[in-house]
Design brief:
Its EC number is 3.6.4.12. By secondary structure, the chain is of the alpha/beta class. It is built from 16 helices and 15 strands. Helices cover 36% and strands 21% of the residues. The longest helix is centred in the C-terminal third of the chain and has 17 residues. Bound molecules: adenosine-5'-triphosphate and magnesium ion.
Length: 466
Amino acid sequence: MAQITTTSELRDITKMERIGAHSHIRGLGLNDLLEPRSGPDSEGMIGQAKARKAAGLILKMVRERKIAGRAILMAGPPSSGKTAIAMGMAQTLGTDVPFTMISASEVFSLSMSKTEALTQAFRRSIGVRIKEETEIIEGEVVEIQIDRSLTGAQTTGRLTIKTQDMETVYDLGTKMIDALTKEKIIAGDVISIDRASGKINKLGRSYARSRDYDATGADTKFVQTPSGELQTRREVVHTVSLHEIDVINSRTQGFLALFAGDTGEIKPELRAQIDGKVGEWREEGKAEIVPGVLFIDEVHMLDIECFSFLNRALEQELSPLVIMASNRGMARIRGTTYKSPHGLPVDLLDRVLIITTAKYTDDDIEKIIQIRCAEEDTKLSDDALKILTTMASQTTLRYALNLISCAQVVALKRKSPAGLVDVDDLRRCYSFFLDEKRSVQWVGEGTAGLIGEDDGQDTRKDRMEE
Ligand SMILES: Nc1ncnc2c1ncn2[C@@H]1O[C@H](COP(=O)(O)OP(=O)(O)OP(=O)(O)O)[C@@H](O)[C@H]1O
Ligand SMILES: [Mg+2]
């Protein structure tokens, strides 16, 4: 059990912030009545009111635990915000409810079977909230003393820590010294140490030290030195996913596999054991199941075997809410010769609630472009904004959004004042890069000399039918 606690650190490592296609999205932008907000409170979301409301309603049901084991399909044309809404849902749920996002094609891997990959995705999306009593040392650091032996091989040390009422000296082992160094703990910090796992938490700087300017930055948090006993017992709650418990307990993989992401297949017997154990914890009141959300993007890439697995998995006792997204109309189901709406077999389709996303109006497109420009630190002139909006409605929103960063580079290159992007910069980028329609046309003309199965004829139609 001691190991399981450290998994919360994992999340911090894997969640890196960067400017991605959806980094402007911070939630669904709904108010308490699930009405979409606009303006600065919209959490980066524009338009698509119906789909957002529906998504909000679903989340409400997830939070109230009314909807596990069901499936939702988001259907709509390309770049109409299906993935964006899913990201918004993930943000709204927060870190306590697991949200797993996979693309259907990830299921086809050489290192494990399709059903194993799906099972892992399912179990990643089911949280177990475990309550534990741990002993905690909490106080203000008075002094850290580290003695290195001459060879450097052995390090010992002592930590003096106090509350307002008492002071104690603890001997430090190498592991604790490393942890203290890693967290950059210095005298005057108020910290808490989990005795079982050795995890150190920096709570802030002591008020008494608020005059030590050299050790404080702009974002330094000052806290009161705790009073009373140094050691206290405290109930801590942490949420881990069933999959994390599986991996940690599978003897061949062990804890490190979680970092590598290379978990391999997990034996069904082990899973059964873990389910049993979790069941016991639940009965003893030590743990609670938190069904989360599994989002499968581009779900039409799954094949008939995966779909039949989904059908069954959804009916099991421990099942998350499954949200799928597809941009296909009538499409062939992989692994069969049938066609079916959205590329989903009808029996699965029958079990899902369908949320549709619609094409954007010019007004919405303009607002989305503005948000993306702010996100990418790019300024467009008014005319450029109008042109880019027109481009988006004639090509696709995604193409237009992709042009933003290219146009910025072009504008900077010609030393435009303050890097302002103008119509010409956009025009140049438009001529540099084909959009989907022009590429279809180019290929279709047959003059490009490309090798094709049917000389490029009807490429577009084929693709839509795939
Ligand atoms: N309502 C919206 N508000 C803000 N940004 C949006 C909205 N809808 C889409 N976007 C942005 O537009 C881009 C394209 O949208 P998205 O990737 O969500 O489309 P999609 O429906 O998943 O398309 P596909 O079917 O091709 O996967 C993304 O960068 C997304 O963040
Ligand atoms: Mg998408």
